[in-house]
Amino acid sequence: MSAVETTAAPASDGGPRLIPAPRFVVGLILPILLAVGWEAAVRFGLATGRLMPPPSRVFATLWELAASGELARHIAATSLRVAVGFGLGVVAGTLAGAVAGYSTLVRRLIDPTLQGLRSIPSIAWVPLFILWLGIFEESKVALIAVGVFFPVYLGVMGAILSVDRKIVEVGRVFRLTGPALVRRILLPAILPAYVLALRSGLGLGWMFVVAAEFMGASEGLGYLLVDGQQLGKPDQIVAAILCFAVLGKITDGLVAAGSAPFLRWQDNFRRED
Amino acid sequence: MLTIDGVGRVYPNGTRALERIGLTLEAGEILAVVGGSGCGKSTLLRLVSGLDRASEGRILVDGAAIAEPHPAVGIVFQEPRLLPWLDVADNVGFGIAHLPRAEREGRIAAVLAKVGLADYARRWPRELSGGQAQRVAIARALVARPSVLLLDEPFSALDAFTRADLQDHLLDLWAESRPTMVLVTHDIEEALVLADRIVVMQPKPGRIAAETRVALPRPRDRLAPEFEEAKRRILRSLDDTLSTRPRGEEIAPAAAI
Q1: What highest taxon heads this organism's lineage (chain B) (predicted)?
Q2: What is the β-pairing status of strands B180-185 and B197-202?
Q3: Across the interface, do B144 and A266 touch by the CB < 8 Å criterion?
Q4: Chain B residue numbers touching A176 (CB-CB < 8 A)
Q5: Chain B within 8 Å of A70 (Cβ-Cβ)?
Q6: What are phi and psi of B248, to 5 degrees?
Q7: In a 10 Å sphere around its CB, with 0-12 CB exposed, 13-18 middle and 19+ buried, how is residue A157 labelled?
Q8: What's chain A's average pLDDT?
């Protein structure tokens, strides 16, 4: 609404005209104010900035890491882990959610167990995964996959269970059965909930990759965090945190943007910007 | 032609919803089924549509027994039940996806023009009013060219003006291809405007209590004295069927509290 009003503001009234600004600019005001304030506080000697480095130091560290190629290596390692873990979690969660949603028998069989497993704090799996899969990539990917699995499983199962019987009957009236009913009625009906499940799964994937990299990694953004703590480099920690924020936002935006063309029909669908 | 022969329906929990319904409709006839809620009129329609299966008896459409949805039988539900992810044209064409593209598109355009929504082909269902959505639902049923069209209280969710408008519109559409129609409604006036014959149903178990032919010529004037007289007659028979409820079943008097 507000964007429409701003861009449509009359230019001919001669008065001072507001520059048309996208809505997200408003959201930038607070973080920028905080950053500038902290920078000024350190510059004017109000704070030492030893434990919480000013933005300029954080960006200098980021620049150093980027220039040496280190940053790209760490980002690539972390992203790859998230990508593989997310992929595995999504496939498993989608399959399990689909059968559990479709078949009452399967649901009664597996859902209580899965709900039980879901209530286990994810970090509790770490020792077991290390025993089973070693301390290298496999255990990390497994932990991420577990984190992604549950929201996707729940989302798909819930979506299938809540498909409107009345809509399914429309398919039956036109004699759709089996695969055609799934493709033409069930899949489009569950798509919005599925996209939401993917997005929350992805968020958990980024969360779990940190836990995974804490359990011993020689590269990755999580390694930068641990390394920064052990060597007393808070600027490196904040730099890594910033990278997580940017990567999380970008990947979430990609999923949202990728699904948007299929969800244009939705009554309540609003692009996030 | 539609034959409903000794049809009964017992729910899995043992409740009997319908008992020995027998009706024969000639090709092109419009039958209205009226009755209070719970009299089994919608259940009957679901059996004819093949969505549910009769416990006893049989239903024949042009000689073929109905046990599951049949291509010659179309249905319009109380709600439009449009698929929200398809635009109006794709909703209308949902049931004729097997036809070649050119024929499919021709039929969709033709039926949309008939229901007066030619300009709405690329709209989403959410952009339609209730009356427009129900017209799309009617178009979706008609585009498959059914010989029997079932209507389950199709206009009950609409306001009075839209309802009267769509009733007249439905008659125009019927006049073009003359499908046999079964209309379930609780609105006596609607039944009198549309039907050749009206069947009054009675609950517990659902059965036919009265049947009357509507001899009024079409188009029917809702304000004509003959129309009023016919309406009174049906209302009286409906009243009779409802008052047969045994006294003992009446709700406990408020004075007992």
Answers
A1: Bacteria
A2: unpaired
A3: no
A4: none
A5: no
A6: -60, -20
A7: buried
A8: 85
Domains of chain A: 57-261 (1.10.3720.10)
- Domains recognised in chain B with CATH numbers: 2-234 (3.40.50.300)
Which residues does residue B16 pair with via DSSP β-bridges, in sequence order?
B10
Q: Is B95 on the interface with A (CB under 8 A)?
A: yes
Give the residues across from B201 on adjacent strands: B208
Q: How far is A181 from chain B (nearest CA, A)?
A: 12
Quick one: pLDDT band at residue A1, thresholds 50, 70, 90? very low
R_g of chain B computed on alpha carbons: 19
Q: Which residue spans within B26-91 are E strands per DSSP?
A: 30-34, 56-61, 64-65, 73-76
> Predicted confidence band at A133 (pLDDT cuts at 50, 70, 90)?
confident
> Do B84 and A265 lie within an 8 Å CB cutoff?
yes
Determine whether the interchain pair A265/B81 forms a contact, defined as Cβ–Cβ distance below 8 Å: no
Taking only residues 184 to 213 of chain A, the set having a beta carbon closer than 8 angstroms to any beta carbon of chain B reads 184-185, 188-189, 191
pLDDT > 80? residue B106: yes
Residues sharing a CB contact under 8 Å with residue A271, sequence separation 6 or more, in sequence order? A256, A260
Residues B53-65, buried b or exposed e (16+ Cβ, 10 A)? Answer: ebeebebebeeee
**CA-closest candidate to residue B200, choices B35, B39, B30, B18:** B35
- Cβ distance of A170 and B71 shorter than 8 Å: no
- Residues in chain B with CB shorter than 8 Å from the CB of A185 are 83
pLDDT above 80 for B237: no
Strands B56-61 and B64-65: antiparallel
Other beta carbons within 10 Å of A256: 17
Chain A residues touching B66 at Cβ < 8 A: none
CB–CB of A175 and B75 under 8 A?
A: no
Closest residue on chain B to A177 (Cα): B69
Instruction: Given the cut 0.90, state whether the ipTM is greater than it.
Output: no
Residues 252-271 of A with CB under 8 A from B: 262, 264-267
What pTM does this model have? 0.78
